[in-house]
Specification:
Helix content: 25-40%
Radius of gyration: 26 Å
Number of helices: 4
Distance between the termini: 75 Å
Strand content: 15-25%
Order of helices and strands: EEEHHHH
Strand order of the largest sheet: 1-2-3
Number of strands: 3
């Protein structure tokens, strides 16, 4: 008996590691054809994922996929706790996850108010530790820090929000 693998789908992604390095995450969808001595065959399609800081992420994904194809085809019970993916370093959260836009935050907040428009005093901050909090519930120095961050990082999509923050701080007379 022998097995013939065929990669149906493959993707790779770089992710930061907790230590600041780079991890390669590989996803494979593999079709395994199991041939018997009499020439008959059975096909199984499985997925495998592997992550590695070097060049072994695809190898790990293939090893995991093959292992699970064998386990599933032959209904092999196992008590083995160690899989190749357990040797993979744990990644940091995926970078580049977009924060909701100010417009999205405002739309959601407007819906929560039954269609009433929010005043800037009730605007919510869409990022940082104050994400989702209303201006009036955030310390003035944190609001000023958010406004400074928007300007320092030149985040165009938050320019209007920055103006709202500064207007709020000026109108309320809060020290910042």
């Amino acid at each position: 008996m022998f097995t013939v693998p065929k990669v149906l789908e493959s993707s790779r992604e770089e992710r930061p590691s907790k230590s600041g390095g780079v991890l390669i995450w590989t996803f494979l969808e593999i079709e395994y054809t199991f041939f018997a001595n009499d020439g008959s065959s059975v096909v199984a399609v499985v997925t495998g994922e592997g992550m590695d800081s070097g060049d072994k992420s695809a190898n790990k994904a293939m090893a995991v996929a093959h292992k699970y194809a064998l386990l599933q085809i032959f209904s092999i019970p196992t008590e083995e706790a160690k899989d190749p993916e357990n040797d993979s370093p744990e990644p940091a959260p995926k970078m580049g996850t977009p924060e909701p836009t100010r417009e999205e935050v405002r739309r959601i907040a407007d819906e929560d108010l039954g269609g009433q428009r929010l005043s800037y005093e009730d605007e919510t901050l869409p990022f940082g530790k104050s994400k989702g909090k209303r201006f009036k519930d955030i310390p003035a120095d944190s609001l000023k820090g958010a406004a400074d961050w928007i300007q320092k990082n030149n985040v165009e999509k938050y320019y209007d929000l920055r103006e709202k923050i500064l207007s709020y701080l000026n109108d309320t007379g809060l020290p910042f």
